[in-house]
């Protein structure tokens, strides 16, 4: 049963990060670039600032997830060379 649980955990994390982060990025782009289309060739009016800030917040969230993932992958190297334990709850290898 441990194997099935491990496979389920990997599947859920893979779906969340593999499909969830690109979906959040797409939503962030859509929120950031919401401007009404101009039909007469005039420049479009600026979009709603609240949606722009929501898009920026999603971009910051995605960047934070990427930075934490890189630090997670390199945690043992950072601990070895700099003696800094970034994730004290994680078991040491």
Produce a short descriptive summary.
The protein has helices at residues 2-32, 49-73, 75-82. It is mostly helical and 93 residues long. It is elongated and about 65 Å long.
Could you characterize the architecture of this molecule?
- The protein is mostly helical.
- It has one domain.
- Helix content is 69%, strand content 0%.
- Helix 1 (2-32) packs antiparallel against helix 2 (49-73).
- The longest helix is centred in the N-terminal third of the chain and has 31 residues, at 2-32.
Describe the main β-sheet briefly. Answer: none
Shape: elongated
SSE succession: HHH
Structural domain count: 1
| Radius of gyration, CA atoms, in whole angstroms | 20 Å
Give the terminus-to-terminus CA distance. Answer: 25 Å
What does the average pLDDT come to?
A: 87
Poorly predicted parts: none
Q: What's the total number of strands?
A: 0
Structural class category: mainly alpha
Number of helices: 3
Query: Beta-sheet strand percentage?
Result: under 5%
List its traits.
3 helices; 93 residues; 0% strand; mainly alpha
Fold topology:
Layout: H1 2-32, H2 49-73, H3 75-82
Helix pairs in contact: 1-2
